[in-house]
Amino acid sequence: HQSADTLRVRAIPGRTLALAGDNQAGLQDLQQAVNMAAGLCKASPNDTSCLEHWALSTSQLARLLRANRDLPAARALTARAIGIFAGLTQKDPSNGDWQSEYAEVLTEQAAEFSAAGQLDRARAQVQTALKILSPLLAKQPQERALVLATVSATLLLAEATHDPQISARLRNSALKTIDAQSADRQDPRLLALKVAALLGLGRKGETDGAIARLQACGYRDSAFVDKMRRAAINYLAHPTVKQRFGSLVITKRSDGALRH
C-alpha cells in the first residue's frame, strides 16, 4: 500500500524528535501526519492499512499532548484511535499487529487515566492491554515492538498499584523480560525502561551505566527526563542530541516505550 508507506514515513520524524526531547517540533510533525492520514482515509474509507496508520499517528500525537499537559486533547485523540482499532480487530481478530497496536493505545488511555488521578480506571485498562499483549509476547519473546509495549504496560500497572509487593513483582517481571533480550540490548528505549524499573525497585545504584549510555546517545524523551528529575538524578543529554539520536531506527510499531 503506497498510501500506508507514505503515512509510516511521514510519522517517523515526529516520533524521533519526541525521543530527542523536541516535543514542539514532534507535535507539529505528528499533527501533519494525522491530518494526512485523515484525508487519505476519507478518500479510501475501507483501506485498513490507512486506518491503522491513522490510529497509530493519532495515538502518538495523544501521547505527546499528554506529556505537554494537554490532557483533554490527548484523551479525545486516544478515544478516536481506540475506536478505529476496535473496528479493525473486530474485522480480523487473528491480526497480531492490530491486536498489539490496539493494546498500546489502551495503555496510552490508561496513562491518561493515571495522569488524571483515576487509578482504578488506569489499572483496569492497562490490565486489559496486558491480557492482549502477554500471549502475543509468549509466542514472540524477542519481537521488539511487543517487548516495549508489554514492559511499558507492566511498569504502568506497577505505578498504578497500591500494594508494594505486587508493584515489586511487576517491576521484576519487566526486568526479566528486558534481560531476556538477545539482540540490540543497548536500544535506548529498552535502556530507559530498565532504568525506570530499577528506580521503582529502589535500585538506583544499578542505573548508572544505562543512564550514561542514554545521555551519550541524546535520549531526551520528556517522560523519562521527568522521571530523572523526580529521582534527583542530574540528567543532561549530549549536546549533539539530534545528530546522534537520528541514527535510531523507529518502525511503525516501536512506540510502546514512548508512552510513559
Helix/strand order, N-terminal first: HHHHHHHHHHHH
Q: How many DSSP E strands?
A: 0
Shape: globular
As a percent range, the share of strand residues is under 5%
Number of helices: 12
> What percent of the residues sit in helical stretches (DSSP H or I)?
over 70%
Unreliable sequence segments? 246-260
Helical/strand content category: mainly alpha
Largest sheet: none
N-to-C span:
31 Å
Average pLDDT: 87
Rg, alpha carbons: 17 Å
Topology, element by element:
Blueprint: H1 2-19, H2 23-43, H3 48-67, H4 71-91, H5 96-115, H6 119-139, H7 144-160, H8 164-179, H9 188-200, H10 208-217, H11 222-230, H12 241-245
Model description:
By secondary structure, this protein is mainly alpha-helical. It has helices at 2-19, 23-43, 48-67, 71-91, 96-115, 119-139, 144-160, 164-179, 188-200, 208-217, 222-230, 241-245.
Task: Label this structure with key terms.
260 residues
